[in-house]
Q: What sequence folds into this?
């Protein structure tokens, strides 16, 4: 009995190391998620709470502004995920080789990722400013005045500037993951391909691409999750404008919760919907991509 008690005490000591992580998880994830789910069924203005059932969700799917933010989020997510991974993979294929200056080039491409996203957004905001910005001044100097425009004040160009700035900042991160995957491929496989007379495209299709499948899965999933929650770039570059034309779901949650300051229940319903969308998309994509890894 005494021995069992001592063993139980020894085992309990290890739980001490789990408590900080558990407290962090409860305080910053589980409790906020559960409370947000409850408030999504209420008309909560930050002071008073009235239970209204599914009214917030019904209103959400009839709200043109919310539906537009969903359309923008889909555009941002699909465009950035595809282009970020395509450019990141192309850069990795070039920089996985050994030549003079390769480490410098890798550092330069990865460096934007380590800076604050808000800082990057504000700097690009100055660069794209229509009157004193570098882009329009260069076009002016090249006598290409017809190409000058309000890069962030017109809906179409503003959305694509958000996409391009995000790709520019994050493609280095994807590149590093792809380089790690490429460095794990045995050179003997490429030598066998050369002996069989395989072209560069066939070597990439039948050797490189299948063997970097895990890197591809990680990059796609991380890109999807991050881009579905795109906020900082939009906040710094356009603030969601002109009007609400460049808003994403994440920025709309902020506008509803802190912009007007009176529709926190409605904002909670939108955040719960975004959480469910991210969960479903992530599970589906992980299932598809892991199955692809096994098939290959």
A:
């Amino acid at each position: 009995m005494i021995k069992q008690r001592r063993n139980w005490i020894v085992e309990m000591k290890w739980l001490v190391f789990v408590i900080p992580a558990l407290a962090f998880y409860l305080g910053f994830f589980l409790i906020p998620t559960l409370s947000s789910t409850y408030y999504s069924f209420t008309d909560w203005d930050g002071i008073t709470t009235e239970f209204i059932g599914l009214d917030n969700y019904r209103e959400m799917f009839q709200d043109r502004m919310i539906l537009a933010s969903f359309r923008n989020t889909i555009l941002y997510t699909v465009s950035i995920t595809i282009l970020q991974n395509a450019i990141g993979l192309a850069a990795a294929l070039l920089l996985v080789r050994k030549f003079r200056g390769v480490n410098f080039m890798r550092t330069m491409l990865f460096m934007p990722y380590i800076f604050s996203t808000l800082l990057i957004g504000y700097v690009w905001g100055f660069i794209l400013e229509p009157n004193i910005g570098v882009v329009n001044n260069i076009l002016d100097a090249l006598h290409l005045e017809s190409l000058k425009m309000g890069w962030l004040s017109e809906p179409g160009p503003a959305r694509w500037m958000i996409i391009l700035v995000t790709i520019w900042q994050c493609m280095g991160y994807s590149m590093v993951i792809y380089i790690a995957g490429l460095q794990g491929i045995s050179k003997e496989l490429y030598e066998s391909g050369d002996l069989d007379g395989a072209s560069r495209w066939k070597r990439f299709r039948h050797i490189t691409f299948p063997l970097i499948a895990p890197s591809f899965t990680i990059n796609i999933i991380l890109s999807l999750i991050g881009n579905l929650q795109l906020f900082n770039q939009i906040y710094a570059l356009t603030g969601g404008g002109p009007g609400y034309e460049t808003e994403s779901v994440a920025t709309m949650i902020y506008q509803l919760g802190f912009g007007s300051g009176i529709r926190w229940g409605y904002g909670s319903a939108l955040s719960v919907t975004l959480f469910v969308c991210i969960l479903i998309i992530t599970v589906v994509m992980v299932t598809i991509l892991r199955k692809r890894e096994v098939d290959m």
The chain has a mean pLDDT of 88. The CA atoms of residues 194 and 202 lie 10 Å apart. The first helix runs from residue 2 to 39.
